[in-house]
Amino acid sequence: MVYVVMATNVFERSMDATLETLFDRSAGEVVVVDPNAAVIESLVDAGAAYGDDLPTLNVLADSRMLKDVMDDFLVAGDAADLVDAGSMTLRELDGDADNTLVAGEDELYAIVSAGEHVAALAADDESFAAAAYETYRDQWADATAFNLRTPGLSRVRETLEGDIGEPVRADFDAVLESLETARGDGDGLDEVTISLLVAAKNDVLLYDISKWGEDVGIASKATFSRTKTRLEDLGLIDTEKVPIDVGRPRLRLKLGDDRLRDASSDELASVAHRMLN
To answer: Are residues 96 and 136 in the same domain?
Structure first.
């Protein structure tokens, strides 16, 4: 494996652009040490958009910060895709560093933000950079893997189309594309709420969408049921009983308000969010 030393600073107007430049300069793998939440989100965004030549991103980060960032389904789903592809690892940092560092075999950068600009400041001593890489590579190797429970977005989309149907998958994609975050903490809708709203838009059975959600790893059937009850109480969702040959009738989901029924797929989340708040 050959590495080219690029001991020059990088100055860009965004974190994503800075990271993409570092990806261009790196080969094989890098260790990203003590990134903050904004850097983690940019690593995932830039990594997901970069393509096949992405160096392996071995991330050492504070576990509480990782959990908070990964509470956003959009970020966690893309991160899970990168992990599944072997392009990213997430491990828990014991302690912290003075700056966010990106360390390659013989290159070392400190990530610094200043107003609207972002810089990656390069170490110009090759032996120091190599020693830093060995130190942090060993630390990464000994670190505990972060438990990323969210399934990859590619698997979510594939199984949603296969198990529930292409129209539901299309509406699901349109809703996700309209969102900046998917947390369900007041800043956005969570993945269970999104799934139920899209299912209701398409008259899907609660049993079918909750079974899919549990099978793919989004949430348990009980969580889907509790969320359905909350949305029904708030008037966002209605249900109707559908008789079956054996057992209790199942519930078909329907949108419960004209504002939602009249909304396009890419407007559904914003209308629902306003109603919930």
So the answer is: yes
